[in-house]
Amino acid sequence: MRIKIFGVFSLIILVVFSCNKDNNSTNISATGSKKSHNVGQNCMSCHISGGKGEGWFQGAGTVYDSLLTKVNPNGFIELYTEPDGAGVLVKRIPVDGLGNFYTTESISFGNGLYPSVVSSTGKKKFMASSISNGACNACHGISQDKIWVSN
What we know:
The protein is α/β, with parallel strands linked by helices. The protein contains one helix and eight strands, in the order αββββββββ. The chain has one domain (23-148).
């Protein structure tokens, strides 16, 4: 009887933990991929601890063209330790075929990182101020201009 109860208890624990969304899954945008969704939305409203999204995003957002009317796909977001691409490149996140970028890989923001947007043709645009988290669309497109770069 004791073994049977232990087996049922173990099964319950396995089901509970396997159904719980966590940050153990790797979910990173890829150049050309079109599996992302919700262009322009705050990705971190779902992709957080306890959220509905797959994995906990450490950095995510959407990149647009210079007119702010169309997405600008297949570039990169780069995070540096100093302004204007100076210092150490801490993270490079691909922008997918729908203009979205995201990663569940750990990002150490430390005292702040300075983002740059790189288009698919290599043009760069730098953000003048540092960021302390990666919820880019929480501000961009709401209280700040959308993230953009010329092609």
